[in-house]
Amino acid sequence: MASDKDESRPDHLLPYLVKENLLGRPQVNLVNTLARVLVPAVLLAALSACSEQAPQTQADADTHPGQSVYNEACISCHNPGISGAPRLGDIDAWQPRAAKGREALVLSTVNGLNAMPAKGMCWRCTDEELGLAVDYMLEKSGIGNLP
Length: 147
Hints:
Number of helices: 7
């Protein structure tokens, strides 16, 4: 029994990727081809990015424990120096603040000071995490650990 389809035609082999154009010649359907290739790749990348725990690399192990809180909550004001916030790395701006001691800096962070709102608006951050962010900013500004 003979088949109705011509086995040599690519549209028979790839029915979703190849269509006939107006002249009846096989033509690749670019949108369909991209959708069938890219959509699964994007979904796979998105799902892998959403995994609960990524494997820890040596670079992750070497990062400061306060860096993630800084990157999440503090960077938007302390990186550009908005409203008088001391910039990360600016030793001249951090020295007079550091002279007050770590406890005073952490209390200012938790309660807010001048234009900085309480907790830097990081409502989920614990006082300990905010203290680690303060330590990170001091370290990156060339000031060691404060008592």
